[in-house]
Amino acid sequence: MVFQRADGRAIDELRPVRIQRHYFDAGEGSVLVSYGKTTVLCVASFVEGVPRWLKGQGRGWVTAEYAMLPRATNERSARESVKGKVGGRTHEISRLIGRSLRTVVDLEALGENTITLDCDVLQADGGTRTASITGAFVALADAVSWGIHSKAMPHRAILRDSVSAVSVGFVGGQAVLDLPYEEDSRAQTDMNVVAVGAGDYIEIQGTAEHKPFSREDLGQLLDLADAGNRRLAELQREVLFGDDPIEEGIIAR
Predict the structure, then answer these.
(1) Cβ atoms within 10 Å, residue 242
(2) Is 12 part of a structural domain of the chain?
(3) Which of 125, 124, 106, 128 has the alpha carbon at shortest distance from 115?
(4) Which regions of the chain does DSSP assign to beta strands (E)?
(5) 247 found inside a domain
(6) Torsion-angle region of 105 (φ positive above 0: left; ψ -120 to 50: alpha; else: beta)
(7) How many domains does the chain have?
(8) According to a count of CB atoms within 10 Å of the terminal CB, is the N or C end of the chain lower?
(9) What is the mean pLDDT of the chain?
């Protein structure tokens, strides 16, 4: 029996991806990113100064906060601010986004400045963390460009490369790219792959839900993820260097 995806995509095809820059006037960078129905608002805030433990070291800092709106899914969830406690999943994804972005930032060139990325999920249909990383990088690039224009830092290649992320997994025994919730919820193996534009990996998160996966299986999934991240990196560059290009030279190309 030939494997068919519910949305009709090929096994190696991304969902429709859209990255909209300058979505809000507020924020030094703001991006609305969507992977199919999954939609995330990523806003970058540039402020002078660094956390106390970094003061006097001549380096900047990049961090992130992730959250989901109460009705981002089919059923309403209580706001974590009302519950008075940030959940483990929220904390883990926030840290993932932050360290993924810091990997490509020259923190010394950033100077003693901090960029915070707020990633708020408006609608969730699988892949919220991967969409957040991909969108947050574009918002980060705009915030860096703003910092250079405001003369808060020197004009140089502060970003060593781009960063994107995509999910892969085995569904019904078939390796597939970019899983919506319908596939993610029944996947035998689910994996998130974060990579730089050059292709090297930042983080690989993989879990077998029903049976272990082999080294060969892992290779299949990484091949799919590599192709997906290459396409996402292309989309990021098209958006950043298209009709309203950021400053030349701040991203190593």
Answers:
(1) 10
(2) no
(3) 106
(4) 17-21, 29-35, 38-48, 61-68, 113-123, 163-171, 174-177, 189-196, 201-208
(5) no
(6) beta
(7) 1
(8) N
(9) 92
pLDDT tens-digit series, residues 111-149: 999 999 999 999 999 999 999 999 999 999 999 999 998
pLDDT of 245 higher than 70 = yes
Q: Is residue 45 part of a domain?
A: yes
CA dist., res. 136 & res. 65, Å (int): 11
Note down the domain range covering 74: 17-241
What CATH code is carried by the domain that includes residue 213?
3.30.230.70
* Identity of residue 165: A
Mean pLDDT, rounded, for 205-211: 89
pLDDT confidence tier of residue 153, bands split at 50, 70 and 90: confident
Q: Which pLDDT band holds residue 76 (cuts at 50, 70, 90)?
A: confident
Contact (CB, 8 A) for 12 and 224: yes
CA distance 124 to 40: 8
Residue whose entry in the numeric block shows the structure tokens 């956390």: 51
What pTM was estimated for this model as a whole?
0.94
Q: Which tokens belong to 123? A: 């609608």
Q: Is 135 annotated as a binding residue?
A: no
Amino acid 84: pLDDT: 67
Question: Is 79 annotated among the ligand-binding residues?
Answer: no
Annotated binding residue 89: yes
Residue 115 inside a domain? The answer is: yes
Distance CA 229, CA 194 (A): 8
Helix (H) or strand (E) holding 240: helix 215-240
pLDDT at 168 over 90: yes
Spatial separation of the C-alpha atoms in residues 49 and 54, rounded to whole Å: 9
Q: 59 among the known binding-site residues?
A: no
Tokens of 193: 């792959």
